[in-house]
Amino acid sequence: MAAISTIKWRARRIGLRLLIAAASGTPLAAAQTQSPRAALIVTRGEGAQDCPDSLLLAERVRGVAGASVISAELGSAPFETWVQVAITRNFGSYSAQISTSGLRHGSRALEDLGPSCASLADAIAVTLAIFLDPYANVPAPKATPSATAPSRSAEPTPKPKPKEASHAPQPWGVFLDADAGVALSVLEHAEPVLAANAGLHLTPNWSLSLGGGFVFPDTVASPGGAVELSLGYAALRGCGRALGEADGARLDWCLAAMLGSLRGSGQDYADNVSQRAAWLAVAAGPKVVFPFTRSLSWVLTGEAVLPVIRSGFDVQSHGSRSPAFRPSAVGALIFLGVRGDL
């Protein structure tokens, strides 16, 4: 509600200045001929090429504002404000993330479900025109000195020193994943697995997460009885973006180091014993992210699992020792989960 209130206040302020200028005879050309004090950078994601680029959007903003308030020519003059507009298209809708830095800073997100980018482009132009307020720097009308009052020389108004453009890095983003899937050839048979991860978006292209998983118990037959197997593990995973947009649908490639505890419990033996063994593996594979809101996404993950330590279990029956379980050289984990960006 704060962003909406600010825009309404600025709209009223522009209208009030127009009335003052008309009543006092102040020419509005002062706002129309001022040098642009804001620079515009537009990025368009895949599928949003029908949206205006920097030059066309700057022209639209100048047309709405009735003044030269913004420029797409970055080297033409010193600027007080830098405006970045990232336009993307996801699942048939257009969205724009507007970020400003410098003398005027803030951010706003716009979204349009129309079949083309025209409505969103108009909304961006109006938003920027109101935000930049071309009449903010128009001088107030000068009072006409009376015949009897002594004239005073106007004191020069100090001009603010233009700030240098700063491209501050985006803050680190935190995300949480909750996954459910199946483990293939990790234990003896295919078994369900649950996993959870907490991570950081280090950059728009790279992320790092720490989490863990649990493979549901599996039972393998062995001489004289059976052995129940279960596995719990922790994983440190790094992912890099390969395809798609950082804030849209994308494909990541991930590499993980896994450390866990493999448990084996004897069943139907005269002396049922439970033992644990260390389990160490590396995993690699793709991760596909499908956003369905601004903060929630579907996540589909597939990883090949290569055990580094292949610990197993033996059983002893009727005086003879026999192997009960040995891990496969290659396994796989397949997950479908939900990601929340905080």
Written overview of the protein:
It contains four helices and 15 strands. By secondary structure, it is an alpha+beta fold. The chain has two domains: 2-132, 3-Layer(aba) Sandwich (Rossmann fold); 173-341, outer membrane protein from Thermus thermophilus HB27 (Porin). It has an eight-stranded antiparallel barrel with strand order 6-7-8-9-10-11-12-15.
Quick gist of this model?
The chain has four helices and 15 strands.
CATH class of the largest domain: Mainly Beta
Indicate the proportion of strand residues: over 45%
How would the global form be characterised?
rod-shaped
Assigned CATH superfamily of the largest domain: outer membrane protein from Thermus thermophilus HB27
Total discrete domains? 2
Radius of gyration, rounded?
32 Å
Chain-averaged pLDDT: 79
Quick one: how many beta strands?
A: 15
The number of helical runs is 4
Spans of at least 5 consecutive residues whose pLDDT stays below 50 are 1-32, 146-151, 163-170
Described by its quaternary structure, the protein is single chain
